């Protein structure tokens, strides 16, 4: 049966194959438009998007999937949006990364941020595994917690071959705590006596998304906003190396619930490092060398953001809420515990470096 299906698929012309994806892509684009409009309303009403469009898109997708199961007509486009569109988005994100401002912040802070990301990934992964989460979901939660929330989860997922349900569950629960972080983080200023500078570092190290860093720091002061954004950019820069590392380790991850496969010969370079990671690193290098000007970087980054929302809509459309209900308690504990560890590591770094 599988052979027959594969033969039929191989016989389908490329143009017809692309045409078959259009209904599903259109559905994902429709969800994306709704999510973007909702975020725009948030920005106009509240000043900042406390819940980003990509989170809204995945929630709409999940709600729609709960009420209606997409027919075979929509499935190719949904699958295309969840994988290929996401890979293009990850590639384009490299155009937003510049090394100049990061290097200027000083070696001590840079080293501390890199160390914080590494420790946070290791601690989060350990917590998730202790709570019984599958290895791939543990990696997703760890990377989302340590680097940049939803974007990191979305970037790492295709590299490790994560299931769409695990991706959606990780994003859904990480998103909830991300919003709570924005609302609750300012309480650390009086609780531990943080200065504006210290609070900016803390926000940059712990808050998941760049817009959320702005939402958490703008009410505190300009210095907090500038420092928080800079530190956050360093964390985002860690996404490239982390994804490359996990692309190297991915072949050692057995299918969930199955024994580890026998090691084959060393895979080719393109198997170890996916094309979109090479594209990400290339664009980041061009941006750092000034070959991609600011005027060109902004629209490319914006396009990457929209494509990520489209892929998140597709992931939401593949999620059954009953799956979320089964893993919800453990994932919530894992994300909460991971976030608590990240906060502790960040505060220790601030005090160790004697940031005033």
From TrEMBL:
**What is a single cellular component term in the Gene Ontology annotation?**
plasma membrane
Q: Which UniProt keywords apply?
A: Cell membrane, Membrane, Transmembrane, Transmembrane helix
Q: Does the record's keyword annotation contain Membrane?
A: yes
Q: Where is the signal peptide?
A: none
* Location within or outside the cell: Cell membrane
Segments forming a coiled coil? none
- This protein is called Uncharacterized protein
Which organism is this protein's natural source?
Answer: Methylobacterium nodulans (strain LMG 21967 / CNCM I-2342 / ORS 2060)
């Amino acid at each position: 049966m599988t052979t027959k299906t594969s033969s039929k698929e191989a016989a389908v012309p490329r143009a017809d194959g692309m045409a078959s994806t259009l209904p599903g892509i259109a559905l994902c684009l429709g969800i994306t438009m709704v999510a973007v409009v909702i975020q725009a309303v948030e920005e106009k009403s509240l000043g900042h998007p406390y819940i980003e469009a990509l989170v809204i898109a995945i929630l709409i997708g999940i709600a729609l999937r709960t009420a209606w199961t997409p027919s075979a007509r929509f499935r190719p486009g949904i699958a295309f949006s969840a994988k290929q569109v996401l890979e293009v988005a990850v590639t384009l994100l490299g155009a937003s990364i510049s090394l100049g401002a990061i290097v200027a912040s000083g070696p001590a802070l840079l080293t501390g941020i890199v160390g914080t990301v590494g420790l946070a990934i290791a601690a989060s992964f350990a917590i998730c595994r202790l709570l019984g989460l599958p290895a791939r979901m543990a990696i997703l939660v760890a990377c989302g917690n340590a680097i940049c929330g939803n974007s990191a989860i979305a970037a790492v997922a295709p590299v490790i071959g994560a299931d769409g349900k695990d991706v959606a569950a990780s994003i859904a629960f990480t998103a909830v705590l991300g919003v709570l972080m924005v609302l609750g983080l300012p309480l650390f200023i009086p609780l531990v006596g943080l200065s504006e500078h210290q609070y900016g570092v803390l926000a940059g190290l712990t808050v998941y998304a760049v817009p959320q860093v702005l939402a958490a720091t703008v009410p505190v002061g300009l210095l907090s906003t500038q420092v928080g954004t800079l530190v956050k950019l360093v964390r985002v820069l860690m996404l490239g190396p982390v994804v490359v590392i996990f692309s190297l380790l991915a072949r050692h991850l057995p299918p969930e619930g199955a024994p580890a496969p026998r090691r084959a010969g060393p895979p080719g370079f393109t198997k170890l490092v996916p094309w979109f990671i090479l594209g990400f690193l290339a664009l980041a290098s061009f941006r750092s060398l000034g070959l991609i000007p600011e005027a060109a970087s902004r629209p490319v980054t914006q396009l990457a953001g929209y494509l990520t929302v489209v892929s998140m809509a597709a992931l939401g459309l593949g999620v059954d809420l009953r799956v979320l209900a089964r893993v919800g308690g453990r994932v919530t504990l894992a994300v909460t515990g991971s976030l608590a560890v990240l906060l502790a590591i960040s505060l220790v770094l601030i005090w160790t470096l004697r940031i005033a």
